[in-house]
Amino acid sequence: MGERKRILIVCGTGIATSTVVAQKVREYCEAQGFEVTIDQAKVMETLRGVDDYDLVISTTQLPSSVSTPSVNGLPFLTGMGVDQTLEEIRQRLQARA
Amino acid sequence: MSSITDFITNLGAPVVLPILIFVFALVLGQRPGRAFRSALLIGIGFVGIGLVITLLIEQIGPAAEGMAERLDVDLNVIDVGWPSTSAIAFGSQVGAFVIPVGLAVNIVLLAVGLTRTLDIDLWNYWHIAFTGALVAIVTDSILWGFAAAAIHMVILLALADWSAPWIQEYYNFPGISLPHGTSAPYVVLAIPLNWVFDRIPVVRDWKADPEAIQRRFGIFGESIILGLVLGILLGILGGLSVTGILQLGVNLAAVMLLLPRMVAILMEGLIPISEAAREFVQRRFPGRNLYIGLDSAIAVGAPAVIATALLMVPITLLIAIILPGNRVLPFGDLATMPFIVCMMVPIFKGNIFRSVVAGAIAIAGGLYIATWISPTFTQAARNVNFQAPGNATQLSSLVDGANPFTGVFYGVAQAPLIGLPLLGVAALLFAWWVSRRKPEEPATPEGEPRPEEPERASEPEEPRVPTGT
Q: Contact A12/B123, CB-based, under 8 Å?
């Protein structure tokens, strides 16, 4: 399956909505057989940019300093469009294999 | 009967809440094993938060006393931050049942057409539990506490509906509203204030560039550095030894990191319940033209919000020191500033100058509220076994201790028999007024809800036409 991917989940608190997203992404990746490490951060901590992550999933707007590929995590909260978002995550993870 | 109540009270929130959550989870159809683990995690979160609060108070206490003696700066009410406040709220008697109560209020209002928002952000029901807990303590009646929580829910839903057109346009969140207990109340401040700003010549053209502020003040966004610097400063001002100063710095940095981590444990335990409840409600309201009520955390990343929040950190500290009669030492919630400003920013169309002025007004008034409620806040903390060692120090917070509605409910609770029914009627009238306005359709129906785009601060200012009639 290639090497372990590192995913950063970002939200306003680094706790509240990102924990919801993290759980769903973790379940999805396990089901799909992706080996991932998932961390959470609050958006304030990404102002100096984020290095060494393969993918950032954020429920809020990321600062321009973040150049890592990113996916909008809002659908995990509203429950609408989750499947497309998971597909986007899958493609991003495979693209960097 | 009273011996049973005593027994339950003696067990304390870290034991009682897990038992309740376990039962809730089973009712909602969770597997027993998973339900048990979630419940236990909630208890563990409580224990963890209690440990960190004790550390915070023990560390900061001597420095605060030193400051009082040496500089006559009497800030002996410690801001323990929203992680502690939310745990106190959920651990209270009102908090234990707040999710079914809040959902019931929401569903009834949807059914009678008094709101368009379905608030599926169940974690943030702690805000209404918090006011409920304070009212229950002041009135010595859990029923008044529940009444307060229910009224608070009505107000938040109405505010979410009212502010939704601004929020949806500025952040590009089609179909979403933010019934968030911390952020939504400040809409009431921002709307008239913006009207005033638009009418002051010269001042109405003042702006600031969010990117430049992010570069220059970014350090205030790093909570562990903030904790370290504040600890060292407090140590110096409090006249501690060099050893004491350095230790205080590292310990307060630790508190800044550990407190949110502890509440994350609590949340991890609550998620299975809140997800199950969310699915339960969403299944029953399919296809209706609803706003989905979410956590305002999703709005916090906008550059204008971050820039405003960064500037608010030093401003809040300055206000706390110079404000006569304030006794609150801002600490835990210095990292939570974005939530105070994030629903005002869209009303000011991303204008940072206006947002900062509004934030400063909100904090100045809020510090008085947080000072005023601190004895009851401290009692509420004691009720969930969060003890302040010694009696010299009291507890409060900015989120939601300094919230205008916390002040309103606390005031009303002094005469609940008249005040709470009046407030209830006022809340329903407000909801009715909001529901009769014709909300604009989301501004960009074709747009994806992408959080990358909504920086509109540079657009020319134009007077906002009231949405609807």
A: no
